[in-house]
Design goal:
28 strands; 5 helices; disordered N terminus; 12-stranded mixed β-sheet; mainly beta; elongated; 492 residues; single chain; 5% helix; 4-stranded antiparallel β-sheet
C-alpha cells in the first residue's frame, strides 16, 4: 500500500491574511452537508462451527472422522467503513445521515483444498460479486449488492445520537456491534440470523438493521470494531457443486450445497484443511443501465434511497486502481489477483469468542477523496465534477486491520498554503494545506507586518486536522477586538 513521501519542510513559511478582507463563503454552501472523505469495505475470512442441529447430527454420525466439530465452515466477511468530513466553517449538527455503496467492484473465487467450489471458476476469468454469495442469487448474473449505513440514526434505546462535526473535523463510522456479541448470539435463532450472517437475500441485512428494524440502513456508530461483519458461508452452489470438492461420505444435502464444511482436525492430530480465496477488481454486475459502482450521500430524511439522495458519484470499473498497477484501467498488463490460502482451523472463531479470534483480512476496497479536490473545494461547487476527479478508487491486498488507515497519495508536499479564508463572527477561519503527517506549526499575529509578528496566537487557536493523510487543517483564529487591520502568519 502506498504511503505519502515526506519531504523536509522549509524552516519558515509566511502566510499573510488581512482580516478585514476575508473571503466570503464559496457558492453552493447554503446546503451544508458533510463530505464522504473515505468509503471502505474490508474483506476477511473466518470459520465457524456448525450451529444447526441437523447438520451437527449428520457429521456426528456419518463424518469420516465422526464429529461435527472437526468440520469448520469458512465465511467471507465484508465490513463497510465510512468517514465523514466537515469542510465548512460552522458546526454540522445532523440528526442522522446515510451513506450507500452499490456494487463494490470486487469479485471472488474460492477453493477447498485446491479444488474450485463452482464449475465456472475452473477455467476462464470468471469472478463473482458479493450478490452471488447469497443462496437465492447464486446463479443471477444481474444481481446487485447494495450496502447502506445509517449514521447517527437508529431506533429507541439504540439511537446513536446526532452527528456533530466541528469545522474541519472528520469522523469514522462502522456498523454497530453489540458489546455482548458472539457468533453464538448471532446464530441463536437457527436459520433466523440476528444481523450479520448475510446468507439470506430476503433479510436485506446490509440495508436494514434487523436488531432495530431501522429501514434507513444498518446502524453505524463512530469507531471501529472488527469482531464481526456482514458475512456469508454460501461459497459454493447447490445442485452443481464440483464432485471433487465433496467428501465421499457427504450427500447432496450435506456437502453438495452452497455452505462448505472443511475437515480441520483428525483425531488427536491437526489436519489443516484449507480454503483459498482469489479476489480481483472488476465490474460485478451485467446490468448495462447501472453504473459499475456508485457511492451516495443520503440525507437521512426519507426511507426511499432515490428520494433521499443528496449527492451520488458514479464510477466505471476503469476508474479502479488494481493491485499490480499504479494507474486506473481495466485488465492492464501486470494486474494481480489477490490470492490467499488459509487453514480453516487458524480462521476459527468459536461460538463463545468475544474477540476477533482467527478472522483474517486479505483485501480492502477504498474510495477516498482526492486531496486536491478537497483543497480546491470541488465538492462544494455548484456543478459537480465527475466522480473520478473527486475520488480515487482502489483495491489493495492487506494482512491486518491496521491497513484501514489508508493515506491517499495526492496530498500537498510543499510548504503550507492557505486555500480558504472566511470571517465568522469573531473568528478568522483558515483552510491550510500542509505536509501529511506533520504538525501545522505556530500561528503568529501583528497589527503591522513591517514590525514583525510578535503575537503568538497558537494557544488560543483551534487547529483541527482534516481526514487522515491529507495534510489539511482547519484553523480557527480568535480575532475579536484586534482591530480591522490585523495580520496572521503561520510559521512552520
Amino acid at each position: 500500500m502506498r504511503k505519502p513521501i515526506f519531504h523536509r519542510p522549509a524552516r519558515l513559511v509566511a502566510l499573510l491574511v488581512v482580516m478585514a478582507c476575508a473571503v466570503s463563503p464559496a457558492a453552493g454552501q447554503e446546503d451544508r452537508l458533510p463530505i464522504i472523505s473515505r468509503m471502505q469495505v474490508v474483506y476477511s475470512m473466518v470459520s465457524h462451527k456448525m450451529h444447526l442441529a441437523d447438520r451437527i447430527n449428520f457429521y456426528n454420525l456419518y463424518g469420516n472422522p465422526k464429529g461435527a466439530t472437526f468440520y469448520p465452515v469458512p465465511h467471507l466477511v465484508y465490513e463497510p467503513i465510512v468517514t465523514l468530513y466537515n469542510p465548512h466553517n460552522t458546526v454540522l449538527n445532523l440528526p442522522q445521515s446515510r451513506v450507500r455503496l452499490a456494487n463494490p467492484p470486487v469479485g471472488f473465487k474460492f477453493k477447498k483444498d485446491g479444488v474450485y467450489l463452482r464449475p465456472e471458476w475452473e477455467s476462464g476469468d470468471t469472478f463473482h460479486g458479493l450478490g452471488r454469495f447469497q443462496s437465492a442469487n447464486e446463479s443471477n448474473a444481474n444481481v446487485q449488492k447494495t450496502i447502506t449505513l445509517s449514521l447517527g440514526g437508529g431506533n429507541s434505546e439504540n439511537y446513536a445520537g446526532a452527528i456533530v462535526l466541528q469545522p474541519g473535523e472528520s469522523k469514522t463510522f462502522s456498523v454497530r456491534v453489540e458489546q455482548q456479541w458472539t457468533w453464538g448470539l448471532e446464530t441463536a435463532g437457527g436459520m433466523n440470523s440476528r444481523n450479520f450472517f448475510d446468507w439470506d437475500f430476503s433479510k436485506d441485512f446490509t440495508n436494514r438493521d434487523a436488531r432495530t428494524n431501522n429501514l434507513f440502513g444498518a446502524d453505524a456508530i463512530p469507531g471501529l470494531d472488527f469482531r464481526t461483519g456482514f458475512q456469508t458461508d454460501w461459497l459454493s452452489i447447490s445442485n452443481g457443486r464440483p464432485a471433487a470438492s465433496i467428501y465421499p461420505f457427504e450427500t447432496a444435502a450435506y456437502g453438495g450445497s452452497g455452505w462448505v464444511p472443511i475437515l480441520g482436525v483428525l483425531g488427536s492430530a491437526v489436519w489443516r484443511g484449507r480454503i483459498t480465496v482469489e479476489a480481483k477488481g472488476l465490474n460485478t454486475t451485467e446490468d448495462s443501465f447501472s453504473p459499475d459502482f456508485q457511492l451516495s450521500l443520503l440525507r437521512g430524511e426519507v426511507v426511499d434511497p432515490v428520494a433521499d439522495t443528496a449527492h451520488e458519484f458514479s464510477f466505471s470499473s476503469n476508474d479502479l486502481i488494481r493491485p499490480g498497477n499504479d494507474v486506473p484501467g481495466n485488465n492492464l498488463p501486470g494486474e494481480l489477483v489477490i490470492n490467499r490460502t488459509f487453514s480453516v482451523i487458524d480462521l476459527l472463531q468459536t461460538p463463545t469468542a468475544s474477540n476477533v479470534a482467527g478472522k483474517s483480512p486479505f483485501a480492502m476496497f477504498t474510495i477516498v477523496a482526492r486531496t486536491k479536490a478537497l483543497q480546491n473545494r470541488l465538492f462544494l461547487a455548484n456543478s459537480q465534477a465527475p466522480a473520478n476527479q473527486l475520488y480515487e478508487a482502489r483495491l489493495d491486498e492487506i494482512t491486518d486491520f491496521d491497513a484501514v488507515n489508508y493515506e491517499p497519495f495526492n496530498g500537498n508536499f510543499g510548504p503550507p498554503v492557505v486555500t480558504g479564508v472566511e470571517r465568522v463572527g469573531d473568528s478568522l477561519m483558515l483552510d491550510v494545506a500542509s505536509q501529511p503527517g506533520l504538525p501545522l506549526g505556530r500561528v503568529m499575529g501583528t497589527t503591522d507586518p513591517g514590525l514583525g509578528f510578535p503575537d503568538d496566537l497558537t494557544a488560543s487557536c483551534v487547529i483541527t486536522p482534516g481526514p487522515v493523510g491529507t495534510g489539511l487543517f482547519k484553523v480557527t483564529v480568535p480575532v475579536g477586538g484586534l482591530g480591522e487591520r490585523y495580520f496572521v502568519r503561520i510559521e512552520h
